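Consider the tokenized backbone below.
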């Protein structure tokens, strides 16, 4: 089974930082585009940031200058460094990737990790 597993979520105070990780299962041969999405309570899922296999990045306006997306292709892992967090960043964060595996090319979602920003 091809999987993406997120980690690093939790409770943080406003102004604090968190680093999310997204690791692909060992049966993934390679990964094309990757992205972080989030779904705030009662709202729709939205794109936070994305990164291509070549390292080109794109950010939602709401996180520019505060969040940094990166990836380690050797480890098939993606990261999201989140700084200057505010309560508006509270959401379930999901990673997404187009992966190549023995099953062919698949779009895969992680299970989500909850980030809560509160004092």
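A designed sequence for it:
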């Amino acid at each position: 089974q091809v999987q993406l597993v997120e980690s690093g979520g939790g409770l943080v105070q406003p102004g604090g930082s968190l680093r999310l990780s997204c690791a692909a299962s060992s049966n993934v041969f390679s990964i094309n585009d990757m992205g972080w999405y989030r779904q705030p309570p009662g709202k729709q899922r939205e794109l936070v940031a994305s990164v291509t296999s070549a390292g080109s990045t794109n950010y939602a306006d709401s996180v520019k200058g505060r969040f940094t997306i990166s990836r380690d292709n050797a480890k098939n892992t993606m990261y999201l460094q989140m700084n200057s967090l505010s309560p508006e960043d509270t959401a379930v964060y999901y990673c997404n990737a187009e992966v190549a595996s023995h099953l062919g090319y698949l779009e895969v979602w992680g299970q989500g990790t909850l980030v809560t920003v509160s004092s």
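The CA atoms of residues 19 and 81 lie 4 Å apart.
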